[in-house]
């Protein structure tokens, strides 16, 4: 599974726009988000779809983000992480 690039980044732009609205989250380059200087989320593409890796606590969790409902689930998880201060 490779990091998202090109058309995949374009497809994910509405999700990125939603992430950018979260407090304390910065984007160092397209599709790579950080919080307090530490990696928070990045995105992958493969033939089966688009995926987000979210750093929650000491672990990374993978979320499929190809469909609207999947993106909402990812944003809910992101909000828990950002709100929890982890």
Question: Can you walk me through this structure?
Answer:
This protein is of the alpha+beta class. The chain has a domain at 1-39. 36% of the residues lie in helices and 38% in strands. It has two helices and six strands. It has helices at residues 7-20, 68-84; strands spanning 2-3, 26-29, 32-35, 38-46, 49-56, 59-64. Strands 1, 2, 3, 4, 5 and 6 form a six-stranded antiparallel beta sheet that branches. A hairpin with a 2-residue loop joins strand 2 and strand 3 (32-35). The mean pLDDT is 93.
Structural class: alpha+beta
Describe the largest sheet. 6 strands, antiparallel
State the end-to-end CA separation: 26 Å
- Helix segment count? 2
How is the secondary structure organized here?
Blueprint: E1 2-3, H1 7-20, E2 26-29, E3 32-35, E4 38-46, E5 49-56, E6 59-64, H2 68-84
Q: What is the compact description of this entry?
A:
The chain is of the alpha+beta class and 86 residues long. It has a domain at 1-39. The chain is built from two helices and six strands, in the order βαβββββα.
Which keywords apply here?
globular; alpha+beta; 86 residues; 36% helix; six-stranded antiparallel sheet; single chain
């Amino acid at each position: 599974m490779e990091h998202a690039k090109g058309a995949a980044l374009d497809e994910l732009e509405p999700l990125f726009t939603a992430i950018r609205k979260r407090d304390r989250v910065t984007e160092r380059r397209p599709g790579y988000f950080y919080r307090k200087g530490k990696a928070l989320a990045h995105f992958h593409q493969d033939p089966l779809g688009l995926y987000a890796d979210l750093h929650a606590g000491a672990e990374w969790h993978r979320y499929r983000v190809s469909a609207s409902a999947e993106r909402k689930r990812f944003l809910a998880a992101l909000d828990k992480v950002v709100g929890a201060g982890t």
